[in-house]
From TrEMBL:
Span of domain AB hydrolase-1: 27-274
Organism in which the protein naturally occurs: Shouchella xiaoxiensis
Protein name: Pimeloyl-ACP methyl ester carboxylesterase
Record carries keyword tRNA processing: no
Keywords: Hydrolase
Keyword Zinc: no
Amino acid sequence: MRYEHRMVEANGHTFHMVCAGPRNGDLVLMLHGFPEFWYGFRHQINQLAEAGYYVVVPDQRGYNKSDKPQKIESYTLDQLRDDCEAFIDVFDREQAAVIGHDWGGAVAWHLAATRPERVKRLFAINIPHPADMPKIFMKKPTQIIRSAYMMFFQLPKVPEKLLATNHFKYMAKGLSLTSKEGAFANDDLKRYQSAWLKPGAITGMLNWYRALRIQMRRGFDEIDLHVNVPTTILWGMQDPFLSKRLARESAKRCKEVDVVFVADATHWVHHEEPEIINYLILKKLKNEKQGIKPI
């Protein structure tokens, strides 16, 4: 499959996007998380495009070849959500099926909850609704330990210096250590390192976490919303960062939801078990197109 690389103006910034599939196909918007970029969905793009969908995978703001504003305020959930709405507008569509992993999934949840008319179906991969994280911290203190890296990322400058050591050698090693063997090949890690080395990238990436301080000051009530969009939650059960209880908590807020746990997979389930993830996504998209509803 030949990819089209585009530079697009949206929501006041310039974004790099990878597009594939027939342009008249139903739009599928894929949102990567930390510390990935469009390449993180390389196992999904071709199968979705070959099935007739027009697949759009942006480097989100702060990442790889897209704009990297350096102010923390540029990375609030509302700003990131508005980027996604602008992406849909760029392609002259009213709606898209939205697939998000990690931070990209948090943005997808927020888009579906606050702009449901723009989301045909939501797929959240190993990420809870952003309002459910504080609830789990209260109910399950062990989640605080698993998420301790998020607190470290709040520090100014220190995380950038530490992570960038030896051309991000240890950050690349972190991907390998938290995933199943073979999920990230050496050539893959080199691509990631190249993306992280771009000027301003690591600060932009970390500012997604730092913007949580702004949300904490505002309170989480404003984003603690029900989701009326048909939703599928896909979850690798061996995730070292996030408890599977978060998936169940997020499912409670959904009007129509399926939760699928993949037993022998981690936070990086879309890399480790792409056949399973692609099958589940395509099955749901095809059922949606044919008007088949779950029993």
